[in-house]
Amino acid sequence: MQTTRPEHPARAHGSAAVIAEISAGLLAPTAHTSPKFLYDSLGSRLFEAICELPEYYPTRTEAAIFAAHGAAMAQDIGTGVSLIDLGAGNCAKAASLFPLLQPAQYVPVDISRDFLTESVTRLQQRFPHIEMTPLGLDFSGGFALPDSVRSRRRLFFYPGSSIGNFSPEQAIAFLHGLRANAGDDGGLLIGVDLVKDSAVLDAAYDDAIGVTAAFNLNMLRHVNHLLGADFNVRDWQHHAFFNPHEKRIEMHLEARSAVTVRWQNHERHFASGERIHTEDSYKYTRQSFVSLLEQAGFATNRVWTDENNWFAVIYARV
Ligand code: AVJ
Fold it and tell me: What confidence score (pLDDT) does residue 147 get?
């Protein structure tokens, strides 16, 4: 890897920490970026569009589980909690539970801060009696809860199988952190995508009209903005597949030809066909995820699934 100074360096908009994190991943022997960089404002909108796709079954399947079993969940959980929504996005999933769960406080957390602010402003008008405390931050490495949250019974809400972005080892550490922050009377309501026929999985992450491809490619625009890099999006193509050994979907961006990308005082050459690994989405069996929760210190679990056993919603308690 060479280091040169570009003649017209573009301005970098990311913080020093973000620039260092992305640079290290792009300069690694196998280039990689964290999936959190998929979510700028356009990325969050493209993800919303993914959730409408016929191939992308997780959102629909999870919503059906909430529709069928939401009352039972609310019964188990109880009303008046502080609902901490991790990766809240447009807040639609939590909002659909408000009538049953009747939380006293709603704490949506999302890295895509502007998108979150817009969502919460709209939601507060629909539910004026629920105290809303949005947190625009990256929670993947843990985060501190404001005092107003700590004073109440806490329910962490982590739907959509976003836990799949962590490796199983990272997931245990992350869930362990939630368990510690939940307190003795708190809990976790989590959505988990289950292992299934690989054709179903492959189609869900490589849809016919290319929305997931656009979602993946948009990461390069976002990284250009954060680093002041000169990725040409047209040089890259979306590649996603189920890896049965690792039990995960892998998303990559593959160089269509040999390209050199420059930012700040760095450059990285990519051979034709070389890839940037942009996302993992781990799939679990019901048993393997319950065992993961137990390793993270959650003792009691209640599991709801759909009729195909494609997706599970689990309420875990200390
Ligand atoms: C938001 C992480 C749950 O893994 O299914 C969708 C992201 N990536 N299509 C998933 C995603 C490509 C999604 N999660």
Answer: 87
For residue 204, CA distances in Å to 131, 156, 163 come to 36, 27, 17
* pLDDT value of position 151: 74
Residues 6 or more apart whose Cβ sits within 8 Å of residue 111: 36, 39, 87, 136, 137, 138, 139
* CB within 8 Å of 302: residues ≥ 6 apart: 76, 314, 315
* Beta-bridge partner residues of 237: 254
For the chain, give the mean pLDDT: 95
Q: Would you state the pLDDT for residue 318?
A: 85
The pair phi, psi for residue 200, each rounded to 5°, is -65, -45
**Greatest distance between any 2 Cα atoms in the chain:** 63
- What would the pLDDT profile of 65-98 be if each residue is shown by its tens digit? 999 999 999 999 999 999 999 999 999 999 999 9
Verify whether ligand 1 is closer than 6 Å to residue 216 (CB atom). no
Determine phi and psi for 196, rounding to 5 degrees: -155, -175
Residues 6+ apart with CB under 8 A from 170: none
4 CA from centroid of ligand 1 (Å): 36
Q: What is the pLDDT of residues 16-68, one digit of tens each?
A: 999 999 999 999 999 999 999 999 999 999 999 999 999 999 999 999 999 99
**Average pLDDT of 188-205?**
98
- Which candidate, 40, 44, 46, places its Cα nearest to that of 207? 46
Query: What ipTM is given for this predicted complex?
Result: 0.99
Residue nearest to atom 14 of ligand 1 (CA): 162
Distance between CA atoms of residues 313 and 77, nearest Å: 13
- 283 Cα to the center of ligand 1, angstroms: 11
> Which atom of ligand 1 is nearest the CA belonging to 87?
1
The tokens describing 254, both together, are: 């593959």
Residue nearest to atom 1 of ligand 1 (CA): 162
By most ligand atoms within 8 Å of CB, the mutation choice from 37, 39, 47, 251 for ligand 1 is 47
